[in-house]
Specification:
Oligomer: single chain
Distance between the termini: 11 Å
Largest sheet: 9 strands, mixed
Organism: Microvenator marinus
Structural class: alpha+beta
Protein name: Phosphatidylserine/phosphatidylglycerophosphate/ cardiolipin synthase family protein
Number of strands: 18
Bound molecules: SN-glycerol-3-phosphate
Shape: globular
Pfam family, one: PLDc_2
CATH superfamily of the largest domain: Endonuclease Chain A
GO molecular function, one term: phosphatidyltransferase activity
């Protein structure tokens, strides 16, 4: 799907001269901003990927170049509080770090009886109730105790499980995905949804309108015509006027991947619907099956998203109903969130602790997926292992990955190589940040093979895991809605780490020695970062 975006952008990039034939000499290629970044690195030891050198940046770069090393002060340091590419480029609209550490003041770990000294405050560590409380406070979510998980790192098994759950559903099937592909797996799922709806189960399906439109609309129209309630987020033309009234742009996507059945079982993770996601030996991906009390939170998440989209559809006069037969609420403000039919009490047994997080850039200043990812990285004391399909970390995230390395945390990232990526554009956007991160000690491993590594998982200190839809890129940080599950339980963390080791064995460590022609392509891709 990154392909159609790439197609649209091809002409634009061509115009930018992103081609081997336009290769420049080193002297020509090092622009003022890069020169200023290198000067700063020589003076402070801290290299930060510079912005695209426009007129304003050039003036700032010239200023930095004229400062002798001995006069370098904080004023010239990159504070790295960027949220997304525009902040990365121009330094505007950036969000400061939230004060997540509130313990006694400290200067070193020795001053703290437990845990470590995190950003000047004693802190009990990522696997503590203290940290859980902080995340709860900022995200207004609750950590739930009890229940079970099953890590789904096999495509075939995930397909069968989704099918089984839908086929056995008795009351409700709630599903959300970025895309349902026009292929045998997409239509198979559509038929399962239709069959459930026709035997009286309430079936609700959410997709991203733009992405789905480029894949197939007939598939979701077929579902809508046969009893499935369908909503499509942010259609390009139908919501055009609405976008002038709300904090939403044509670039915003619904990206969460969720299935909740009968309020008893939920699957949350990285897979959309299609052959590449759900057939063995195709893309590498990870979901997790959750049962027990945490399902209530995931159900709430889905119903909140459904209510939001119903409301927005209502405000555009239900054009989706008129054109495609999609769902339309019967009155303004219609809400399912508090409808107790959808919630089933569950025993709080077992040692699992889990927290479902919904990231919504429409209403959250720092979208919560981004906040949670940043907070977990800031809280790491020993290790951070990341598997992420699209690794284009915004400046604030890079700052904290580097800070983690600096305090001795072992940071490893697996992302796609040039051969495994499904969008060469994403590869070059990612390559842009290799040098900065590798030189700080972050190990970036490139997944080898011809199929995509599509997972979005993280484990911190071998104790806390994240499984969800959040790509480590500007789009997931500030444009997409996302769903994540943070888990604390030895068994599921062991499974995540085992799965990570399998991928690590299939990956090779990237080098910071990147050919100039490759770096030039990477730099050009900074221009289109927010669109990728
Ligand atoms: O945005 P993602 O991470 O769901 O991936 C997008 C498509 O699956 C691949 O282009």
């Amino acid at each position: 799907m990154k392909g159609w975006i790439a197609f649209v952008l091809f002409g634009f990039l061509s115009a930018c001269g992103v081609d081997d034939s336009t290769e420049q000499t080193p002297e020509e290629s090092v622009d003022l901003c890069e020169a200023a970044a290198q000067h700063r690195a020589e003076c402070t030891g801290n290299y930060v990927t510079p912005p695209i050198c426009d007129e304003a940046s050039e003036a700032a770069a010239q200023n930095i170049l004229e400062v002798p090393c001995e006069e370098f002060s904080d004023e010239f340091e990159a504070t790295g509080k960027a949220d997304g590419a525009f902040c990365d480029w121009f330094g505007t609209g950036c969000t400061p770090d939230e004060p997540i550490f509130g313990g006694p003041r400290c200067e070193s770990n020795a001053e703290c009886s437990v845990g470590f000294c995190a950003e000047g405050r004693c802190f009990e560590g990522v696997n503590s109730d203290e940290f859980s409380g902080v995340i709860g406070l900022y995200t207004e979510t609750e950590e739930v105790e009890g229940g079970t998980t099953e890590l789904l790192d096999s495509n075939g098994m995930t397909r069968e499980l989704r099918r089984q759950l839908v086929q056995e559903a008795q009351n409700s099937v709630h599903f959300s995905a970025f895309i349902i592909q026009d292929d045998e797996v997409g239509w198979e799922m559509a038929q399962d949804f239709i069959a459930a709806a026709q035997r009286g189960v309430e079936v609700r399906v959410l997709v991203d309108a733009t992405t789905q439109y480029f894949a197939t609309y007939p598939l979701i129209e077929e579902m809508a015509a046969n009893g499935v309630q369908v909503l499509a987020f942010n259609p390009l033309t139908e919501w055009a006027l609405l976008r002038t009234l709300l904090p939403i742009t044509g670039n915003d996507r619904l990206h969460e991947k969720l299935l909740v059945v009968d309020g008893k079982s939920a699957i949350i993770g990285g897979r959309n619907v299609g052959v590449e996601y759900l057939v063995d030996e195709r893309w590498r991906d990870i979901d997790v099956l959750v049962e027990g009390p945490a399902v209530e939170k995931i159900q709430r998440m889905f119903l909140g998203i459904w209510d939001k989209n119903s409301e927005l559809e209502y405000r555009v006069g239900c054009s989706g109903r008129d054109k495609y037969g999609f769902h339309c609420p019967s009155f303004e403000g219609e809400s399912l969130l508090e409808d107790m039919r959808f919630y089933v009490p569950a025993e709080a047994e077992g040692s699992l602790k889990s927290r479902a997080i919904y990231s919504d850039p429409m209403v959250q200043e720092t979208p919560l997926g981004y906040f949670a990812t940043l907070a977990l990285i800031r809280a790491a004391q020993e290790s951070i292992t990341i598997s992420n399909a699209y690794f284009v970390p915004p400046r604030r995230l890079r700052k904290h990955l580097k800070a983690a390395e600096e305090r001795g945390v072992d940071v490893k990232v697996i992302t796609n190589s040039k051969t495994s990526t499904d969008g060469i554009w994403m590869y070059y956007a990612s390559l842009n940040y290799y040098r900065e991160l590798l030189e700080a000690g972050v190990e970036i491993y490139e997944y080898q093979g011809v199929e995509l590594m599509h997972a979005k998982t993280m484990v911190v200190d071998g104790k806390v895991g994240v499984i969800g839809s959040f790509n480590i890129d500007p789009r997931s940080a500030v444009d997409n809605s996302e769903s994540l599950l943070i888990v604390r339980e030895d068994a599921v963390i062991a499974e995540l780490l085992e799965s990570y080791q399998v991928d690590l064995a299939n990956s090779t460590l990237a080098s910071s020695d990147i050919p100039l022609s490759e770096m030039l392509k990477a730099k050009a891709h900074r221009l289109i970062e927010p669109l990728l």
